[in-house]
């Protein structure tokens, strides 16, 4: 039927609306309710900023005149419609010369980009409809760079215009989801805050889900229908005020919405009627359900009682023999008391015969760390608690596991020759019926893929039928995280991580295993042996077995070991603990072959092997993860370079190396036992040795290139001052990464020396400039650590490497490779030395003294204190360390443990360790004198006398009796001589500062002590005279409420003239017209200081 031109066909509400109409409704709601308000908000902000920028441009838009007005605003190409603003079209029609071209506000700027029928909005609010908002987004300059303009054009054409055409057939499921994605993409390009963007995306996804519910063909929740009905009503009102170019299209759109609204109204009424009827039926069903539930519970209880009675009768009629299947107790087992106690705590033995419970715990650690011995000792020590029996299974491989199960099955009468699986099931069934506590040890569970029978033991349903209480103890090389992934329901907290022997435990083992008597001489030799083998129990067992077999002394063995190293350990295997142990597990040079083979056979294992081989030349205690890199120069293997360049590649290498405890992983580095490195190098063929050495050199050169180098600091100083180092501010951690890389360089240098001595033919691939540069880094590092003579020898070795190689270098090449004179200038050396401290990561816990107890670890702490009083300082360190490791982290342990351990390190002359502990203690308790006192002792031990004096002064500031009440200070002439040199100033003493700092005399001689140490409290010090200083330290301290430093303000032309040695820390200086002037002999160091031209 034809319609008159301009008329609109009526829309009769249908009794059913299609899924396409439902999707159309949801899209309309998302456009009106979600997208439009967001766009208006963004436009209001961005158009205002753009308008302000255009007003201050060379051609300000609010002062335009005819023919000097902008025709377009690039990158938009549309002609600006000035008829839309200032009532130009209403008043002047097409007389453009009469138009007012001044763009007076952001709203006027926005109207220039839209068609006249869209330009009726009064602001970026409800009067601006979506069509106008999208048009503005498409053309306005602020939205082109982010891509929002292009995406807005897509939303306008593909979503908004298609929706307005009311062609319901268009709204298939594919188009519906695509349009929602277009809307989300637009919003993500509007530079919203993360919170606002997430809120929008969540709301959009919510409506997407509602659309799915509407179209799923199932019953719809009445609440959802009511929500839709409300939103459709709001959408109808919004469309009513839209300004469409075609009024017929707008009318059709409104009629479609009215039809949908009427449908949802009827749908809600219908559902309400259905719910009323169903409610009555549901009540009847509830009554019947309650009756059946009660009857079921009664029947179940009767059935359970019968089952319990049957089971009880079966158990009473069957006797399970008691088995104690442990290997013999090791007669020389020693130490490990805390590990045994902790393992016992992991198991909670219950006397309740009715409780069915199987607990699993594991001992994890490096191969050769004594896991099997610990498990055997645990079982022997607490065998009386396991009245139901003790069983020992081997988890080394499937065959050994089956053999060990068969030995138990013989006694239980469960052996089935034809099937190991059925034998295990029957054996476990017998064990499950034991009513008294029992222990099952699964030793050496190290296979990469566990066999199905071991899986049955650990995770099978038999455990649910256990009548008594059982414990399963696993020994494995798997790390704790891997254990939790291997065994269902297993927690990392159920693992005991076994480390190598401590020094004291190691010495006790040596004396017990060899039968050698302990005295002052042998005690020292035993300690040397333990430290040489880094406490590895398997290595110590092999060494002691060799000593016992030949009846030689400890000193003779040590001499032999220094000459033959790992080869000496091959001469004697360890004694087996278990009958099932393979010979390979009894010697250091073979026990890790299982780990090496696992890595080689894994997917992409060749890349991990390459890095593993290079690690044999690094410092074993801290191998930075950054050393997994493509090398510099890049190694020849493209596949390796590409693999390690990806985050997943590096993570996979780390996983393979650490999964079975070959390496230990910390937050930023790896650690490996030195004997593991020796075994790797010992297994190298000559060609493998060279290739792996070159890989290590290249990896380390890459690591150096990514860390801050002293070259940067030294080059900057020389370029600026030509012939000498001058005033230089330092960051205590600036060269820390370089320092750690140097530790690897030292290892490479030592191994290179040994290699060159033993090699009959010089391999040119080793004596390359990169190797020489690493040796040169060692020389710098030695010089920085006050070992100038050794540094000079190492520099000569670096030049020798160049001479031995085939690389032809010019004089400029050598200067670039070895850019500095060694020994370094003293100030330069000190600056680098001060900048190698590890960065602080701790959080301040308290700003008061030491009388706050954070987390009691009193027993361990008191044991450490007792050892300290008995002058057993190493044992004290171990107790303090164990106390800290027993807590949940730095934020929970008692900080006084750090202070106490620092004191023990000082007594052991481990001053670097003492310095780290003292600094960490200060970071936790910055106003406690003890931290500064311990730090001063460490610096004194490192021969950094001026630094020690500075820190001792801070200790005095926080405790005036420190020089008399702190024994290490009161008995030391150096610290006693400091007290009369310390001056403390407050801001109201400005007039006295110059007099205090003024030297009593001048001297050209280098001083071990500063003449004066001046501590300036927070505040503004106004100085009205010239300040002369010589050989002094100035320290600023905060007021506790703020972190501000004291400010020295010099009036007029006054400033500072300095000579000698000057140290300044935490001080701000401001000059009106004066300056700081230094004499030629002045060496000055500044830490956390600032300089300005004036106080303002």
From TrEMBL:
Coiled-coil annotated residue ranges, if any: none
GO molecular function annotations of the record: ADP binding
Segments forming domain DUF7779: 608-688
Top-level division of the source organism's lineage: Eukaryota
Domain NACHT: 363-512
Gene3D superfamilies (alphabetical): P-loop containing nucleotide triphosphate hydrolases, Tetratricopeptide repeat domain
InterPro entries documented for this protein: DUF7779 (IPR056681), NACHT_NTPase (IPR007111), P-loop_NTPase (IPR027417), TPR-like_helical_dom_sf (IPR011990)
One Pfam family linked to the record: DUF7779
PANTHER family per UniProt: NB-ARC AND TPR DOMAIN PROTEIN (PTHR35205), ZU5 DOMAIN-CONTAINING PROTEIN (PTHR35205:SF1)
Protein known as: Stress-induced-phospho 1
Taxonomic source organism: Paramuricea clavata
């Amino acid at each position: 039927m034809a319609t008159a031109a301009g008329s609109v066909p009526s829309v009769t509400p249908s009794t059913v609306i299609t899924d396409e109409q439902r999707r159309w409704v949801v899209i309309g709601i998302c456009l009106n309710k979600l997208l439009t308000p967001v766009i208006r908000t963004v436009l209001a902000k961005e158009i205002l900023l753009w308008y302000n920028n255009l007003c201050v441009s060379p051609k300000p838009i609010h002062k335009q005149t005819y023919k000097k007005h902008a025709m377009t605003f690039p990158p938009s190409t549309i002609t600006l419609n000035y008829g839309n603003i200032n009532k130009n079209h209403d008043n002047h029609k097409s007389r453009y010369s009469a138009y007012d071209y001044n763009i007076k506000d952001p709203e006027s700027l926005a109207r220039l980009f839209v068609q006249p029928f869209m330009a009726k909005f009064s602001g970026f609010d409800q009067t601006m409809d979506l069509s106008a908002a999208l048009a503005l987004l498409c053309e306005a300059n602020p939205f082109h760079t982010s891509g929002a303009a292009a995406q807005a054009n897509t939303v306008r054409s593909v979503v908004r215009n298609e929706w307005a055409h009311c062609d319901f057939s268009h709204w298939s499921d594919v188009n519906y989801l695509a349009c929602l994605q277009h809307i989300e993409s637009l919003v993500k390009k509007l530079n919203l805050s993360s919170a606002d963007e997430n809120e929008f995306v969540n709301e959009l996804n919510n409506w997407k889900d509602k659309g799915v519910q509407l179209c799923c063909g199932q019953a719809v929740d009445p609440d959802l229908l009511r929500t839709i009905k409300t939103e459709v009503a709001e959408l109808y009102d919004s469309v009513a005020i839209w300004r469409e170019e075609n009024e017929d299209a707008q009318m059709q759109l409104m009629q479609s919405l009215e039809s949908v609204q009427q449908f949802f109204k009827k749908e809600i009424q219908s559902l309400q009627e259905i719910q009323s009827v169903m409610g009555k039926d549901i009540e009847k069903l509830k009554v019947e359900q309650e009756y059946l539930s009660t009857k079921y519970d009664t029947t179940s209880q009767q059935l359970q009682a019968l089952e319990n009675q049957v089971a009880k009768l079966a158990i009473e009629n069957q006797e399970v023999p008691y088995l104690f299947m442990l290997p013999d107790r090791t007669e020389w087992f020693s130490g490990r008391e805390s590990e045994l106690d902790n393992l016992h705590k992991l198991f909670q033995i219950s006397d309740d015969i009715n409780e069915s419970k199987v607990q699993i715990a594991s001992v994890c650690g490096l191969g050769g760390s004594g896991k099997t011995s610990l498990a055997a000792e645990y079982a022997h020590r607490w065998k009386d608690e396991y009245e139901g029996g003790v069983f020992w299974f081997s988890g080394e491989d499937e065959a050994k596991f089956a053999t060990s199960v068969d030995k138990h099955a013989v006694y239980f009468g469960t052996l089935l020759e034809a099937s190991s699986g059925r034998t295990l099931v029957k054996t476990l069934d017998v064990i499950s019926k034991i009513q008294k506590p029992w222990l099952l040890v699964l030793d050496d569970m190290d296979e990469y893929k566990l066999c199905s029978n071991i899986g049955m033991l650990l995770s099978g349903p038999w455990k649910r039928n256990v009548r008594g209480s059982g414990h399963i103890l696993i020994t494995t090389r798997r790390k704790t995280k891997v254990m939790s992934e291997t065994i269902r329901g297993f927690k990392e907290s159920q693992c005991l991580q076994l480390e190598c022997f401590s020094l004291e435990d190691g010495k006790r083992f040596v004396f017990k295993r060899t039968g050698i008597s302990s005295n002052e001489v042998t005690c020292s030799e035993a300690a040397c042996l333990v430290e040489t083998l880094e406490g590895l129990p398997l290595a110590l067992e092999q060494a002691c077995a060799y000593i016992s077999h030949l009846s030689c002394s400890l000193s003779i063995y040590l001499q032999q070991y220094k000459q033959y190293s790992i080869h000496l350990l091959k001469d004697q295997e360890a004694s087996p603990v278990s009958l099932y142990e393979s010979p390979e597990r009894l010697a250091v040079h073979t026990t890790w072959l299982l780990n090496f083979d696992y890595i080689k056979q894994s997917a992409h294992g060749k890349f991990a092997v390459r890095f593993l081989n290079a690690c044999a030349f690094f410092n074993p205690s801290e191998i930075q993860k950054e050393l997994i890199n493509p090398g510099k120069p890049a190694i020849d293997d493209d596949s390796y370079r590409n693999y390690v360049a990806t985050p997943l590649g590096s993570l996979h290498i780390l996983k393979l190396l650490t999964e079975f405890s070959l390496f230990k992983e910390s937050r930023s580095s790896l650690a490996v036992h030195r004997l593991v490195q020796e075994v790797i190098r010992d297994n190298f063929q000559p060609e493998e040795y060279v290739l792996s050495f070159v890989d290590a050199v290249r990896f380390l050169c890459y690591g150096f290139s990514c860390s801050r180098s002293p070259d940067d600091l030294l080059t900057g100083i020389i370029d600026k001052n030509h012939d000498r180092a001058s005033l230089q501010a330092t960051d205590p951690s600036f060269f820390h990464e370089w320092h750690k890389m140097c530790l690897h360089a030292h290892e490479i240098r030592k191994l290179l020396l040994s290699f060159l001595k033993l090699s009959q033919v010089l391999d040119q691939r080793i004596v390359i400039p990169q190797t020489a540069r690493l040796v040169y880094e060692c020389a710098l590092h030695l010089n920085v650590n006050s070992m100038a003579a050794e540094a000079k020898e190492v520099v000569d070795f670096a030049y020798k490497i160049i001479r031995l190689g085939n690389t032809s270098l010019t004089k400029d090449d050598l200067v670039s490779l070895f850019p500095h004179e060694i020994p370094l200038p003293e100030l330069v050396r000190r600056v680098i030395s001060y900048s190698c401290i590890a960065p602080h990561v701790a959080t301040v816990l308290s700003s008061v003294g030491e009388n706050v107890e954070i987390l009691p670890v009193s027993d361990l702490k008191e044991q450490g204190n007792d050892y300290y009083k008995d002058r057993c300082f190493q044992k004290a360190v171990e107790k303090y360390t164990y106390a800290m490791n027993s807590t949940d982290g730095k934020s929970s342990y008692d900080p006084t443990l750090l202070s106490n351990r620092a004191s023990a390190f000082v007594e052991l002359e481990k001053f670097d360790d003492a310095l780290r502990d003292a600094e960490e203690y200060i970071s936790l308790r910055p106003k406690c004198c003890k931290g500064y006192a311990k730090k001063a002792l460490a610096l004194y031990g490192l021969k950094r006398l001026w630094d020690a004096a500075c820190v001792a002064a801070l200790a005095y500031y926080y405790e005036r009796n420190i020089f008399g009440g702190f024994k290490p200070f009161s008995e030391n002439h150096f610290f006693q001589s400091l007290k009369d040199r310390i001056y403390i100033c407050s801001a109201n003493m400005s007039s006295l500062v110059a007099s205090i700092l003024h030297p009593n005399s001048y001297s050209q001689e280098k001083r071990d002590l500063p003449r004066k140490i001046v501590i300036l409290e927070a505040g503004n010090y106004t100085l009205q005279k010239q300040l002369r200083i010589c050989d002094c330290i100035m320290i600023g301290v905060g007021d506790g409420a703020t972190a501000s430093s004291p400010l020295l303000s010099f009036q007029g032309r006054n400033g500072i003239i300095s000579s000698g040695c000057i140290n300044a820390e935490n001080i701000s200086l401001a000059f009106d017209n004066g300056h700081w002037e230094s004499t030629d002999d002045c060496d000055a160091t500044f830490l956390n200081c600032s300089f300005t031209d004036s106080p303002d």
